[in-house]
Sequence to fold (325 residues):
Amino acid sequence: MITLAVETSCDETALALFSSESGIIGDVLLSQAVHSEFGGVVPELSAREHTRNILPLFDKLLKDTGMDISKIDFVSFTLTPGLILSLVIGVAFAKSLAYALRKPLVPVHHLEGHIYSIFLEKPIDYPFISLIVSGGHTDLYLVEDFGKYIFLGGTLDDAVGESYDKVAKLMGLSYPGGPIIDKLAQKGRPAYHLPRPLIGEDGLNMSFSGLKTAVRNIVMTGNYSKEDLACSFQQAVVDVLEKKVIRAVELTGVRNIAVVGGVSANSELRRRFKELSEKHNYQVYFPKPKFSTDNACMIAYAGVERFKRGITAPLDINPEPNTPL
Ligand code: KG4
Ligand code: ZN
Fold:
C-alpha cells in the first residue's frame, strides 16, 4: 500500500510518499522563512505560504520519485492539533486529492505522528514512555500500543520549544530560536542561576513560563553574556526534563523512553539522555534530527497504522485546532 501524507499544522509544508512495505519513497519539505523576523509563527502568513507552496511541492515530489499519481492508495493528513488557518490548507489539499483519485482519506493526530517518528528508523518495543517536546507541546505519555496512549503529565503553561523561541526573541535572535540557542549554549557556561520550576514536585507536571521570566529579568539588565545565558537556560530546561522522565520511569516501571518533537533535536538533551541511559540502564530513543521537527514521513507512518485499523474520514471532515490525543 502507498500513502501520500500531508502535514501543514504549523510553519512546515511537508508531503511524503510512503509504502507500508518498504517505508519512505520520497519526501519534500519547505520551512517557511517569513516568520524569522517576527519571533514566532504569524498564522495568516503561514496559511498564505502553505497555499502558495503545496501544489509546487506535490509536483516536485511526483517528479523526484517518478511516482504515478494513480499508485496512491490513500491520503493521510494532519487533522489536529495546529494553527487552524494552516491546517485548513493541508486538509483541503488532502480532501481534493482523495476526491479526485476516489481514494480513502486517513486523518492523523499530529502528536501521534511525532510519537511514531521514532519508528521511521526502526520500531521499538511496547510499552514505552514518550516525551513529546515541541513548539506547541511538552507532554509525557505512556504508549501501550498503537492508539493506546495514557497521558502522564505535561506543561501547565509554555511548551519547551515555545520557551526557547521566546527566550531567543528576548535576546534579539530570530525565529525559530531553539537551534540558535542550542548553538550559542555550546559556547557558554551555566553562569546564571535560573529556576527549575516544579522540579522537586512528585507529579509529572511541568512549567516553563517562570524560567522565561527569569531570563527576561537578566536580559533587562542590559549587561549579560548571550552564550552564558543560553547555556544556563538550556541546562535548566534539560534538568527539568531529565528529572520528570526519571520520575515517569519510577511511576510506571517502564524503562523504554522515546524523546520526540522539535526540541528532541537539541544537542544537550541528546547528550544528557544518552548519559541517563548509561547510568540508569534505560533504553533511550531519539528520531533522526530530520524527523524531530515537523515532517510528513511521521504522518505517513501513523497514517498507515490507522488505515490498517480501518480508520478513515469522510470528505466533509474539517480540521480541529486542539483535539487531545
Ligand atoms: O515539532 P516542531 O517542528 O513543531 C511543533 O509541532 O511545534 O517543533 C518546533 C520547535 C520550535 O519551538 C523550535 O525552536 C524547536 O522545536 N527546536 C529546538 C531545536 N530545534 C528545533 N529547540 C531546541 N534545540 C533545538 N536544536
Ligand atoms: Zn510538531
